[in-house]
Design a protein that fits this description.
By secondary structure, this protein is mainly alpha-helical. It has six helices and six strands. Helix 2 packs across helix 6 (195-201).
Amino acid sequence: MMLQLDRKQNNKLRPVVGSKDRDIMKQLWAKSHKKSNSMKSSELALRKGAKKRHREFTPSKRLILNELFEKYLNDVEVCTDRKIDNIQRDFVKSEIEQHSHFRLTPEQSKANRREFNSMKKQIIHDWENHYHTTWPKYEEPIYSKNGKITRMTGGNYDAHELIENSWGSPHEWWNIHPAKYPSEHQQGIHRKGGYCDQIYNS
């Protein structure tokens, strides 16, 4: 970059920018602009992530026994075409009345799920003993939209937890109910706007 006298500005020195200098300045500006945008994007992502984590970890209201929960239990029966007898209902209701259930953090929920899975076989066995019947099994394989087998022939139906895992579900026979994947379970009990969704996700 060179300096020359500017007659219009009382012979003050001013820079003379050549084509090479212009190219260098454009490159520097582009790098600076790109870095600035990158920092803004990173800050925005961090803020969004922080908000998401805040929603995940914020404890929700306590699970309460009310008319909505009674409708939820009835809805589980309708979706699965299987009754929940009064003994099982009383166990679930007593659990909610006597113990506080709040939404767990993701880490706590994973730990609770691992514990449930380790006890699942015995819990289903206890359910079978109470109802004097066998846990229903798939008579044919269930395929995903991608054509992959998600449930094998002879495998057990899903065990829907009446008090959900993410809300500190007790690992007892009276807290599970057979539900076929996906029609009775995910598309039925857990359908958007259903009683289960209203109780646990509102």
